[in-house]
Amino acid sequence: MKKLALLAFLAVTLSCPAMADEPSAASGPRPGTVEAMQCLTRQGPKDCQKMFVGGAWRPASGWVFHDPQRDFKRGALVFSNFWGRASQSNAFDYKAMLGTPTREMDIFDVKFAHTRYTFYIAPADADGKIRALAIWLYPPHDPLQISSR
Q1: What's the predicted TM-score (pTM) here?
Q2: End-to-end CA distance of the chain
Q3: Which among 30, 67, 61, 65 is positioned nearest to 46, based on CA atoms?
């Protein structure tokens, strides 16, 4: 009986696509995502906001232009780190990617003096444009992300 239960467990876990190996964070950020994160934190070149198109433009538009009041509330940029790659098998990532046209996104942990965010950024297309973006309050995979939306 124990062998049958073990065999059933192995069959389910090995055939489940959610258990497939995800690309590791060690493989690094994909093309365009670091540049997009730099633009969102106002560390990018002039007119970098043009890289955000389609569904990425709306969430990016509140970040890429000078806004002294917003910048004062957030405080100075403390750090921005590549955190890893999003996975559909992770509840936090899955929720962040709902409504986006892609399931391939890089995660950045971005800390300002007064607050912290998680940026989900899709890799740039062949034309260098970012078409999917999600910005969440709180650090990556913080339980408050799930309860705040």
Answers
A1: 0.75
A2: 44
A3: 65
